[in-house]
Amino acid sequence: MSDDLIGQLKTMLIEGLRLEDIVPDDLSADAALFGGGLGLDSIDALEIGVMLDRQFGVKITSGDERNNQIFASLRSLADFVAENRTR
After folding, report:
1. Per residue in 22-60, is it b (16+ CB within 10 Å) or e — as a string?
2. How many CA within 13 A on the CB side of residue 60?
3. CA torsion angle for 51, 17, 74, 60 (degrees, to 10)?
4. Closest to 48 measured CA to CA, from 86, 30, 38
5. Were both Cys, which of 12, 52, 71, 86 would link to 57 (CB 3.0–4.6 Å)?
6. What's the CA angle centered on 69, arms 2 and 87, to 5 degrees?
């Protein structure tokens, strides 16, 4: 998994979720996305899933038992995308 993919995900999250006053350098690859990290919620998770499908061809279902691991941080999300992307 590359830093380039993490950079793409940072930009995608900032633009797609309309995170105001946040630039890519503000986001740590290992910081929590939900809870105390960025403070994202379940609606944001759904939006991220749609963005990942559109941009990378990655499918994430709401019932996947791995979702807590997948969405733990940008790095874990990037690892999942790298392993499962179709574009």
Report:
1. eeeeebebeeebbeeebebeeebbeebbebbeeebebeb
2. 24
3. -30
4. 38
5. 86
6. 45
Q: 32 has which bridge partners?
A: 73
Residue 30's nearest CA partner among 66, 81, 78, 65 is: 78
Give φ, ψ of 32 to 5 degrees: -65, 140
3 state SS of 49: helix
What are phi and psi for residue 23, nearest 5 degrees? -115, 160
* pLDDT tens string 3-16: 899 999 999 999 99
**Closest by alpha carbon to 60, among 81, 43, 37, 44?**
81
- Alpha carbon distance 20, 64 (integer Å): 30
Residues in the chain: 87
14: helix, coil or strand?
A: helix
Please state whether the predicted TM-score (pTM) of the whole model is above 0.85.
yes
